[in-house]
Amino acid sequence: GERVTTCVMDLNDFSPVSDAHKPADLVTAQFALMFTEDLPGSLEEINGVLCEGGILVGTVWEDFFLLPLIRDTMTAVLGSAPPPPPINPLSLKDVDLVDGALADAGFTTFGRHNETATIDINLGPYDSDDTIKCTLIPVTPSLAELQEKGEHGDDVFGTAMEAMKTAIVEHGMI
After folding, report:
1. Which whole-number Å values give the CA distances from 102 to 9, 56, 57, 125, in the listed order?
2. Residue burial 154-171, b: 16+ Cβ < 10 Å; e: rest
3. Would you place residue 20 in the very low, low, confident or very high pLDDT band (cuts 50, 70, 90)?
4. How many CB atoms lie within 10 A of CB 128?
5. Which alpha helices (H) appear in the chain, and where do they start and end?
6. How would you classify residue 127: left for phi > 0, otherwise alpha for psi between -120 and 50, otherwise beta?
7. What string of DSSP letters covers 132-171?
8. No. of H helices and E strands in the chain?
9. 65, 62, 51: which is closest to 17 by C-alpha?
10. CB atoms closer than 10 angstroms to residue 81
11. Phi, psi of 142 (to 5 degrees)
């Protein structure tokens, strides 16, 4: 009905909410804030659409098992270590940085603030092509570009899949 409205938005453009002149009671940013290029701007946008007493629920990564696997896989594909990602997905694991950014944007923290938990992810059997394809999703566009350029062998995806299987074993992820 009319009591709940949901939408997915760019973290730096909450105009769909403000244009509707309906302040939000709740904004969730689950594993998203670490991917914005402008954290202060994103937090200001979020705070700007929250009603008085509105709540931001956000989660960030402290660690992510897939990152070293992807690094090792891309090293095998490229023949050397890949460049760092344009945005560090672990950039918000520093509690003081996040708390400072929240305070600067006008947020007050309370409740289960800075709580940590481990999320176990079982993608399936490591020797399944579907499992390996899932682990390669973050780099699939890069792999497609490398395949198209033809500078890293005839079967970039095959090389990546085998390298990911090796990385899974070497990192003890079985």
Report:
1. 19, 10, 12, 40
2. eebbebbbebbbebbeee
3. low
4. 12
5. 15-19, 39-49, 66-78, 95-104, 129-135, 140-149, 156-170
6. alpha
7. HHHHTGGGHHHHHHHHHHT-S-S-HHHHHHHHHHHHHHHT
8. 7, 2
9. 51
10. 10
11. -65, -40
Residue indicated by tokens 């979020």: 46
CA end-to-end span of the chain, whole Å? 45
Coil, strand, or helix at residue 28?
Answer: strand
Structure token digits, residue 127: 């020797």
Structure tokens at 170: 């070497």
Residue 165, both tokens:
């299987």
C-beta of residue 61 within 8 angstroms of C-beta of residue 67: no
Band the pLDDT of 11: cuts 50, 70, 90. Answer: confident
